[in-house]
Every structure is written in C-alpha cells, then in structure tokens.
Design brief:
about 400 residues, alpha/beta, Aspartate Aminotransferase, domain 2, Aspartate Aminotransferase, domain 1, seven-stranded mixed β-sheet, three-stranded antiparallel β-sheet, 12 helices, 14 strands, about 15% strand, globular
Length: about 400
C-alpha cells in the first residue's frame, strides 16, 4: 500500500510501538497510587508529559493530557465558555456570550460551536474569509465585542494544508483581552513552533505525528479560566479519569522523535519537494486537474487536487483497489460524496469541490512511493474519465 492519508493518521514508528508495548507489560500500575509501583508509572507519565510540552515549548505543568484531539477541543471551548458564564453569575440567557470561529475548522470545532448555539449556550459568529479563503484579521476586530468568550481558529487546515495567519489573529485577540484557542492538530509535530506561542490555548493529538491514538493534549496559558468537563482528581483536577499510560508513554517518544526531525529544515524541504513533484505531474498529465489553495501558504505535506469531471468517491475507491490510500474532505452519505463544506467556504466552485481528493504525505514518504502514486493516480483518473465520457 502507498499510504497518502497521513492527515487522517500516521503510522506509529517502531520506537513508539516498542515503548507502548513495554509500558503495557511493565507500567500497568495506577499512576495515582502512592506505592512504589504506582509512583514508577507516575514518573514515566510525567517524563512523557515533559516531552510533549517540550515539542510545543511550554512548561509541562501547563499541559493537560486527554484522550484525543476532539476531547481537548471540547475541554478548551466548553471550559472557557463555562468559565465566562460562571464569572457572569451563571446566567447564559440573552444576551448570549459569543464564540468566533471560521467555517474552515475541523468538525470537532465547527460542529461543537453550532451545537452550543443550538443549546442556547452561545452565539456562533463566523469570521469572514478573504479571496484566498484565509481568515481576515481585520474583520476579526469588528466581530469581537464585550460578549466574546473565545476566538478559535485552526493553525493549518486538515483538508488543504492552508496555514492561517495565527500570529496576527492572536494579536487582535490580545489587544481586546479575548482568549484565543488554536487547533494545532495538523501543525504540531510537522512544523517548528515559534519561540513563544501566540495563542492562549493550543490543542493537538499524538497520532498526527507518528504517535499512538488515544492521546490528546491541551495547553492552557496561566491565568486563563477553564472549567473541567470530566470531574475527577487527575490532571491537577482539570480532567478526570485514570490516564492511558502506555499510549502517553508512546506519545512522549513520538514527540521526542518529531522534535529531533524538526531541527533539520532539509528533511522537511525534501518531502515538500516530493509533494510538489506529485502535484506538478498530476496537473500536467490529467486534463483539468487543479490544486486547491495553491496560492495560500501550505503545510509541506498536504495536496488537495480537484478533478472537475470526476466523482471523488469513485476515484478514491479505484485508488484503494490499486493500493493507494487517500481521502476526501467530506464523509460518504447515502452512497454519494457531498462537496466539502470547507472547500466551498474557501470559495472553491462546487464542481471542483465535488471532485477533490486529499493526498497527505509524512516524513516517512519516499520518492519511489510518489513515483508509483503518480502513475496510479493518472491511470485511475484516465480510466474514470473514459468510462464517464469526459475524455
């Protein structure tokens, strides 16, 4: 299999898998127990927390470990919103606090904000996008008011790899005294972190950078109010539940490996060159194929290609049969693939969005894989175009 779906998940490295195995078989005591066995597990857990915190450049004590990126996002958004409501005396009726976000967010953010609005807990405000589909810092300043509880914007888009102007957005929030949450799921472990994080809350997940699934993290800047969503004594009373130690230990190894890889810009440039070669070949050899968001700053690993005369679902199935794993930005529903709401929000025409496929590389992707993937994609697209009569 040629695996080009790394924005969905990445293969745990051998060192990560080994660390998880060892921890499962030897570090099985409860990390909250006071006896020696429990404290040995606690020590391993805290070492992993330090590795994860070091990856984003924050103190370990400010990092909350969760069960996923989605849980981290829920804790950040709900936690800040409820802190705001509590400070207002527990009243969430009109006028409601508002949460500002974009229609480009991962569903973990977008659906959550809409859910809170339906519940009558908050008003959703959608940040306008510029002509390239990028969040507009100037418009953000006009949306924020005295009732704004939180602004939440992703660092890099999971479908297109488009990088948002996080520093400028954070500056607007800082000037107005509004907490700024950043979904860093596609950024952390793939791109170097700035010397000082611009946001107030940052969420990420280990399985996006070759760690195990089942480990998320939330960094909260000191002084930001946060109401726990799972009550318990773990994670310094901020997230209850016995920690998944083996997975966390593996996540620590993944963080350490990612940090080491990020010290070499040439390694990142090498994979970016493979992505560019892949894109150029597809556009040259498949009539009508275009690269979505190619004018935006993008992650080095992500390519979203539109095949305007094809159905993305049909292309994905044929690619899978021939050993290439890729994905589209929308889920299948009743046998058809709806256009991605993210691509539509970016202003991409519906015919292009309907036929768009995401290919995402990892730091393990090699040149021979890309060569084979090019030939397979071209062959599959050509076959489908002929069968549909568009060629």
């Amino acid at each position: 299999m040629i695996y080009l779906d790394n924005n969905a998940t990445t293969r745990p490295t051998d060192a990560v898998a080994q660390a998880v195995h060892v921890a499962t078989t030897t570090l099985w005591a409860n990390p909250s127990s006071v006896h020696r066995a429990g404290q040995e597990v606690r020590h391993a857990l805290e070492l992993a927390r330090k590795e994860l915190a070091a990856l984003i450049g924050v103190p370990a004590k400010e990092l909350i470990l969760t069960g996923s990126g989605t849980e981290s996002i829920n804790l950040a958004v709900r936690g800040v919103l409820e802190s705001r409501i509590h400070k207002a005396g527990g009243h969430s009726g009109p006028p409601l606090p508002n949460i500002i976000t974009t229609r480009l967010e991962h569903t973990a953010v977008r659906d959550l904000v809409q859910h809170l609005e339906r519940q009558g807990r908050a008003e959703a405000r959608w940040l306008p996008l510029d002509s390239r589909g990028m969040a507009d810092p100037g418009a953000l300043g006009t949306l924020i008011d005295s009732r704004t509880a939180l602004v939440s914007v992703q660092w890099a888009n999971n479908e297109t790899g488009a990088i948002q102007p996080i520093e400028r957005l954070a500056e607007v929030c800082r000037e107005r005294g509004v907490p700024f949450h950043c979904d860093g799921t596609q950024w952390v472990g793939k791109m170097p972190m700035p010397e000082a994080l611009p946001c107030d809350l940052l969420t990420f997940s280990a399985h996006k950078f070759h760690g195990p699934k089942g480990v998320g993290a939330l960094w909260v800047r000191r002084g930001v109010g946060l109401v726990p969503q799972t009550i318990g004594t773990q994670e310094m009373d901020r997230r209850g539940g016995t920690e998944s130690v083996a997975a966390i230990v593996g996540a620590g190894v993944a963080a350490r490996e990612a940090a080491a890889w990020l010290t070499d810009p040439a390694a990142r440039a090498k994979v970016a060159a493979l992505r560019d070669r892949f894109e150029n070949a597809i556009v040259e050899r498949v009539p009508g194929a275009t690269i979505n968001c190619h004018t935006c700053p993008r992650l080095w690993n992500t390519s979203n290609i539109a095949f305007p005369t094809l159905e993305a679902e049909a292309l994905l199935m044929l690619l899978s049969e021939r050993g290439v794993a890729a994905s589209a930005g929308a889920a299948c529903s009743s046998g058809s693939l709806d256009p991605s709401p993210v691509l539509l929000a970016m202003g991409i025409p519906e015919p292009l969005a309907h036929g768009s496929v995401r290919f995402s590389l990892s730091r393990e992707t090699g040149g021979s894989e890309i060569n084979d993937a090019i030939e397979t994609v071209v062959a599959c697209a050509t076959q489908l175009a002929r069968s549909s009569g568009s060629m």
